[in-house]
Design a protein that fits this description.
Order of helices and strands: EEHEEEHEHEEEEEHEHEHEHEEHEEEEEE
CATH topology of the largest domain: Rossmann fold
Largest sheet: 11 strands, mixed
CATH class of the largest domain: Alpha Beta
Distance between the termini: 75 Å
Strand order of the largest sheet: 11-7-8-6-3-12-13-2-14-1-18
Radius of gyration: 24 Å
Helix content: 10-25%
Strand content: 25-35%
Shape: globular
CATH superfamily of the largest domain: Vaccinia Virus protein VP39
């Protein structure tokens, strides 16, 4: 079998101690919670290996493509004047260089193989920058019989700036499909329904469920799956630069897993895999090294009505966090009323000067415009935050309540932990103490 060699491949890497995942937030209760993890993929996978080796049924990843660029998350100040400037915040950089990318991907792919159950499926979403190199790497890790299919996803129509490119116009991504052990243990064949009025050549009604889906997706009007990046008014858009369609990921999850199976995505990005797995009744683990990714994914999940419990974890210590995030200053006020009732109000939030541009700051008439959502643990006892109460905006640019109330069943002194998530992806926390007579 052919082997790909890159600078440093034969170099021995020092043994590293497994990273412990710290649980920061608990959302919901009961059962085995799903997991949203902040941390570098290799560190997170090493931590997960302690309990999940051979347990994952399906992995879908959309890793960096080694494009040499950085990618910005786009947001805006809620309640700002019409036509206010968008705020661009770097979500991640994609500039390792090919040798470094291959060394990194080789390590991650090996970790993914170990986490997969026998017959588990892996889908790797790439483009022409590294797809061909990645296939050779994956062939080495999974074996030639592990390769199942190359899927071509046509991004959509051609118009505007894209159409002026000299030469053939790039209009597709590549998904490499592998199975651990050479044969997937689960595969549910998908079909595109026949169009209304369709009959067979002999004039008879069709007997089957439709056209079986081939390895080129979004190639006809019967199989619409244009990238939401080119659909101007897609309701799925959350501002994340490389967000993928729910329909795209849902096709993979339906085909290569069963309800209750564990699905993993260690490059969560906008959180599409976690959202789709949640909707389709799969268990999930989603991680990403970008705090913006965690911010966006948490927000998408907590906007769901019927959400199963999940925990937010971190593979990093508090000292590894962006210093800009630590300069946010939150103040809250509390008032105790009769019969154990407590009223809590956010009094102020100060966001660091460097976190947003001057034009964006000019749109902020009141500090509350920075707040995207906030949550409360009414009986904080150190350790993870039990986010019992979660407050979000009423629509993308709607108002947000700054006051919340809670009734304690028993007298005593309680520590209340408040955490605010701002529109820039940052966090601020503080505690207050209340005494119930």
């Amino acid at each position: 079998m052919a082997e790909l060699v890159w600078r440093g491949k034969r170099r021995r890497t020092p043994a590293t101690r497994a990273v412990r995942l710290r649980t920061d937030e608990i959302h919901g209760s009961g059962g085995d919670p799903n997991r949203l993890v902040h941390g570098d993929a290799s560190e997170v996978l090493r931590a997960l290996a302690e309990t999940l080796t051979g347990q994952v049924s399906l992995i879908y990843i959309d890793p960096p493509f080694d494009t040499g660029h950085s990618f910005d998350f786009q947001t805006a100040v809620p309640g700002a004047a019409t036509g206010s400037p968008r705020i661009a915040i770097e979500a991640y950089r994609d500039d390792r260089g090919l040798d470094a990318w291959l060394a990194w991907f080789f390590g991650v792919a090996g970790q993914l193989r170990d986490l997969l159950a026998a017959g588990g499926s892996l889908y790797v979403h790439l483009d022409a920058h590294v797809a061909h190199y990645a296939k050779v790497v994956l062939d080495e890790i999974f074996g030639l019989d592990g390769f199942q299919r190359e899927i071509v996803w046509r991004i959509g129509w051609i118009s505007g700036f894209k159409s002026r490119v000299r030469g053939w116009i790039r209009n597709h991504d590549t998904l490499l499909f592998y199975a651990k052990g050479g044969r997937p243990s689960v595969f549910h064949k998908e079909y595109v329904p026949y169009p209304k009025g369709y009959v067979r050549r002999d004039g008879a009604a069709p007997r089957g469920p439709g056209y079986p889906i081939e390895d080129v997706w979004n190639a006809s009007r019967l199989d619409p799956m244009d990238s939401i990046q080119i659909v101007s008014f897609s309701r799925e858009k959350v501002g994340y630069p490389t967000q993928k369609n729910e329909a795209l990921v849902a096709r993979i999850v339906r085909a290569s897993s069963r309800p209750g199976d564990l699905v993993l995505d260690c490059f969560a990005g906008s959180g599409t895999t976690a959202v789709v797995a949640e909707k389709l009744g799969r268990r999930w683990v989603a991680s990403d090294s970008s705090p913006i990714s965690i911010h966006v994914t948490r927000k998408r999940l907590l906007s769901r009505v019927a959400l199963k419990p999940f925990i937010a974890q971190s593979a990093r210590s508090r000292h590894d966090l962006d210093p800009a995030a630590t300069r946010r200053v939150l103040r809250v006020r509390s008032k105790v009323h009769a019969k154990g009732r407590v009223r809590l109000a956010i009094a102020s939030l100060r966001v660091p000067e460097l976190a947003a541009s001057a034009p964006a700051r000019s749109q902020v008439a009141h500090w509350a415009q920075w707040i995207d959502a906030w949550c409360v643990d009414w009986d904080y006892r150190r350790g993870p935050m039990n986010a019992i109460s979660y407050v979000r905006r009423k629509g993308a640019s709607g108002a947000i309540d700054l006051v919340i109330a809670h009734t304690y069943a028993k007298p005593g002194t309680y520590v209340v932990l408040v955490k605010v998530f701002d529109v820039l992806g940052g966090q601020a926390t503080t505690t207050v103490e209340v005494t119930i007579e």
